[in-house]
TrEMBL record, chain A:
Keywords: 4Fe-4S, Coiled coil, Electron transport, Iron, Iron-sulfur, Metal-binding, Repeat, Transport. The keyword Iron-sulfur applies. This is (4Fe-4S)-binding protein. Pfam families: Fer4_8 (PF13183), LUD_dom (PF02589). Residues 358-385 form the 4Fe-4S ferredoxin-type domain. Residues 42-69 form a coiled coil. GO terms for molecular function: 4 iron, 4 sulfur cluster binding; oxidoreductase activity. It comes from the Archaea. GO terms for biological process: lactate metabolic process.
UniProtKB/TrEMBL annotation, chain B:
This is Lactate utilization protein C. PANTHER family: LACTATE UTILIZATION PROTEIN C. Residues 63-165 form the LUD domain. InterPro entries: FTHF_cligase-like_sf, LUD_dom, NagB/RpiA_transferase-like. It comes from Halorubrum ezzemoulense DSM 17463. It comes from the Archaea.
């Protein structure tokens, strides 16, 4: 990205933060909390997700066959199925069916994707959006900012002002109730006079030709009932085998989306339906209702053939990945979205239906924090899809400046990758050099001229403090010092993985971890092992990540083979071992390492549970602590170990409840994303500056979290393992 | 039907803001009377010995539907866990009657109260295969949060009452 493009992107994000950020944040956080609460009430949440996943896997596997089956079923019911190759094909067909008549629509992202309104209007038809949010957007001439609640970026005041300006009512509606009544009445007339009702479909069952529509307002029901032609538009991926298969989705979709156990209406329609339709005055017979199911390919069958993008087709468009995403919560879909779709999974949709250029616009906003992973009702690995598409975007760009970095960045990825991404992707090399030349390298890096060059050429924001490299790495320190516990008398023998940050930058937490483990009778070894691959992976450099992973496995393999546990301090690296290595290493190597590797506080917890002496650790003595876990650590459900250990050791702990600190590795260093990173971080900082938390000692598990908190608070944060280190300076 | 399902159904209805009135076939008319605000529209009820009073218009015009204060329909079944009613039917106007009036009164036979979504989908699938053109799983009143706050009563009813006929 050029400096000019970076500047423009930063400006756009700042504009969205200023104009839409508050509304988006308020609404998405309600959805997010609602989802945790509503899914928490489900006894069999995990089983339902597994079922839903299995149904989608099977449906996409058998899609051509199911499309034939649903076609037969709909035709046997008296309807028509049209399989459209692309948007133009779909619009041509729908325009013919509508034939210049007035159409009323319920909300459908797929109809947004093909821009059917524009096609119909160009043909002289009137089209009215009847979903209240879509109606607001239609009269404001704006695009959806959220796939479920499309006008989430607009406040009540803005909607009132809009209605006032457009309709000039005598008694302008102001409250949410008044605005709703006003829109209902206005749209009621449109529905009464319309000839064609258009809907989407959340699911289509192949066995019976049944549409499931998940709604709350009742407008979709009205659009179908009041008119005598029903056109349903759905992507081909919406077809599932049978009516029974709807059950897990009906239980999951509302909970996962807006946090409702179920939405007001789940309509199962097997059209053409026979509800009486609206004549001029009397109700007319619904027996002659015409039904057209338009199934849209528009790139989906290609996605189905693509091993990496296929999972996207399992998506049920619930919006959980958007609502659980810290970046999305702060900017919404007008920054974190492409031509049609928004949020984490949008990268897959946009790359598949509109092309990689559309995905490239916002793909970087997925930091890989993984908070969406456990929220997805069909268990899509959304960060992975973002990584793969980023990798493809990297490979697709021109490599004009490649000669500048080729020698300096010994990565395995081919030319053409953005220089900024290569810089951050090769953190290991940078850290090694930085450490070798410390403190000189730190002075040079922090000097004004160097920062200005870094910002201009690589987009490293000069408002961020750079990591300060230690002259002596953790591995070197340990090699000199050696173990202080006799291996033969040891309770356990473990290998401490020296992740790149702990090894070169935050060596103090590595030393604390060694001393804490030793105080509990553990023999520790710290072998030289390289960067885990997290840094290149986050830049979409999959090939480099894989070669890093292979090198790390080679370094740790002897310990793993000897049956020793591997203790990891940096949660994002442990998450690599547990999650992403499944994609980068042979299955048996991934499983062996996953089986053996533990987060450091989780390991301490296990030692204490298994008889290690709590008395060997310093007494917390009621010290008040504010703890921020790490996004990926929480996804692996490892936060409770840290709080349990600190509680047991006598500390008084409160925790943050934000999804991510906003720093996310390199993200917060990038000049185009600095403002967003700080905006996200402020939410965390606010939680740690309340009356209850302002005087607490701040601890955080991740390097990025520590850097962000260090920048935003006046207290200096540390890793929680340092609280357990007898050498800790308590001043 | 089980006693447990009925109790769960009632408490789930309460959670989604739906009043539940328990009655018997004999007592139906007097139980319904206080729930009817004029003008009332309805679709004929399928339960033995249970019918709508004359005051309920079962053949409304479009204008009468839109002006209706109360709309009475049967519900094919109730789902105890969720406090949902499943509105079925077609030609007799169950869909517009349950959708246009300010308040929807759904009449459910106690025998048709199912414990959970699993049981409901067994029934739904069988009904669809038997030709049921539409089944609406309706839970509480229509709602929207699109205008800056949660509002009950969007395009559909703003109130829902369930009349549970215990001996049907």
């Amino acid at each position: 990205m050029s400096a000019e493009n970076r500047r423009r992107k930063a400006e756009h994000i700042r504009h969205i933060l200023d104009t839409e950020g508050d509304s988006v944040q308020q609404n998405t956080r309600v959805f997010n909390e609602g989802r945790y609460e509503s899914t928490g009430d489900l006894d069999d949440y995990e089983r339902l997700k597994d079922e839903a996943r299995a149904i989608k896997e099977d449906a996409i596997e058998r899609l051509p066959e199911l499309i034939d089956e649903v076609t037969e079923a709909v035709e046997a019911n008296g309807g028509t199925v049209y399989l459209a190759d692309d948007a133009a094909d779909a619009n041509r067909y729908i325009t013919e069916v509508v034939d210049g008549r007035t159409a009323v629509k319920s909300k459908s992202m797929t109809s947004e994707e093909i821009e059917v309104n524009e096609a119909l209007e160009a043909d002289g038809a009137d089209v009215w959006e009847t979903d209240l949010a879509e109606f607001v957007l239609q009269i404001a001439d704006e695009a959806p900012s959220h796939i479920v609640a499309p006008a989430i970026h607009k406040s009540r005041e803005e909607i009132a002002a809009l209605f006032d300006a457009v309709f000039e009512p005598e008694d302008p509606p102001e409250t949410a109730e008044e605005l709703t009544r006003f829109a209902r009445e206005h749209l009621g007339e449109k529905i009464r006079d319309a000839d064609v009702g258009m809907t989407g479909a959340n699911f289509v069952t192949a066995d019976t030709g049944t549409l499931a529509l998940v709604t709350s307002e009742g407008n979709a029901r009205k659009c179908v009932q009041a008119t005598d032609t029903h056109v349903a538009v759905a992507g081909v991926e919406k077809v599932i085998p049978s009516v029974e298969d709807l059950q897990p989705f009906v239980e999951l979709i509302g909970r996962s989306g807006t946090g409702q156990d179920i939405t007001s209406y789940v309509s199962l329609l097997t059209p053409p339906t026979d509800s009486p339709t609206f004549g001029d005055e009397a109700l007319g017979s619904g027996d002659e209702r015409d039904f057209h199911l338009v199934l849209i390919d528009n790139g989906r069958m290609k996605m189905r053939d693509d091993d990496q993008l296929r999972e996207t087709l399992y998506c049920i468009r619930c919006s959980a990945c958007a609502n659980s995403c810290a970046n999305f919560q702060h900017v919404g879909g007008h920054a974190f979205g492409g031509e049609t779709y928004s949020g984490g999974i949008a990268t897959g949709w946009e790359a598949g239906v509109h092309g990689e250029e559309s995905a490239a616009e916002f793909n970087d906003l997925c930091t890989g924090c993984s908070r969406c992973v456990n929220q997805c009702p069909v268990k899509i690995d959304i960060p992975w899809i973002n990584t793969v598409v980023r990798d493809r975007i990297n490979r697709g760009t021109d490599g004009d400046l490649d000669f500048l970095v080729e020698g300096l960045t010994p990565d395995a990825d081919p030319g053409g990758i953005d220089l900024q991404k290569r810089l951050f992707g090769n953190f290991d090399t940078l850290a090694k050099l930085g450490s070798a030349f410390a403190p000189l390298s730190n002075w040079v890096a922090e000097a004004g001229p160097a920062r200005s060059v870094l910002e201009r050429t690589l987009g490293v924001d000069s408002r961020r403090e750079l990591p300060r490299f230690e002259r002596e790495s953790l591995a070197d320190w340990f090699a000199d010092r050696g173990s202080r516990v006799d291996p033969d008398a040891a309770r356990e023998r473990v290998t401490l993985y020296p992740d790149a940050y702990t090894n070169y930058v935050r060596t103090e937490r590595g030393k604390a971890a060694v001393r804490v483990l030793e105080s509990l009778g553990v023999h520790v070894d710290v072998p030289a092992a390289g960067e885990s691959g997290r840094a290149p992976l986050s830049q979409g450099m999959v090939a480099t990540a894989r070669s890093n992973a292979e090198a790390v496995y080679e370094a740790l393999a002897p310990a793993v083979a000897a049956g020793r546990d591997v203790v990891v301090i940096e949660p994002s690296d442990l998450a690599m071992f547990h999650r992403e290595y499944g994609r980068l290493l042979p299955t048996e190597e991934h499983e062996a390492l996953k089986e053996r590797s533990y987060e450091v506080m989780e390991y301490v917890y296990g030692l204490l549970e298994n008889g290690a002496d709590l008395g060997a650790l310093p007494d917390g003595d009621g010290e008040r602590i504010a703890y921020h876990s790490h996004c990926q650590q929480r996804t692996l459900d490892l936060e409770p170990y840290t709080t349990a250990v600190l509680d047991d050791a006598g500390f008084d702990v409160v925790t943050s409840d934000v999804e991510c600190c906003g720093m996310a590795g390199s993200f917060g260093y990038k000049s185009e994303y600095y403002d967003l990173s700080v905006d996200v971080g402020e939410t965390l900082a606010d939680q740690f500056t309340t009356d209850e938390t302002a005087d607490r000692t701040v601890v955080a598990s991740g390097t990025s979290c520590l850097e962000q908190l260090d920048a935003l608070l006046t207290r200096r944060p540390a890793h929680p393992v340092r609280l357990l280190d007898a050498r800790r300076d308590r001043r | 039907m089980s006693v447990e399902s009925i109790a769960t159904f009632e408490s789930s209805l309460d959670e989604v803001g739906v009043e539940c009135v328990r009655t018997t076939a004999d007592g139906f008319e007097s139980a319904l009377a206080p729930l009817l605000d004029d003008p009332a529209v309805g679709a004929p009820l399928p339960f033995d010995g249970v019918s709508l009073p004359d005051a309920v218009n079962t053949d409304p015009t479009v204008a009468e539907l839109e002006a209706a204060a109360t709309g009475v329909t049967a519900a094919g079944y109730g789902i105890a866990d969720y406090g949902s009613v499943v509105i079925q039917g077609g030609a007799a106007g169950e869909e517009p009657v349950s959708l246009y009036a300010d308040e929807h009164v759904a009449v459910v036979a106690a025998d048709d109260v199912l414990p959970d979504m699993d049981a409901a989908f067994d029934r739904l699938a069988a009904d669809v295969r038997d030709g049921a053109g539409q089944s609406i799983i309706a839970t509480g009143p229509s709602a929207t949060a699109d205008m800056g706050a949660l509002v009950k009563g969007a395009h559909g009813p703003m109130d829902v009452t369930v009349v549970l006929v215990e001996d049907r």
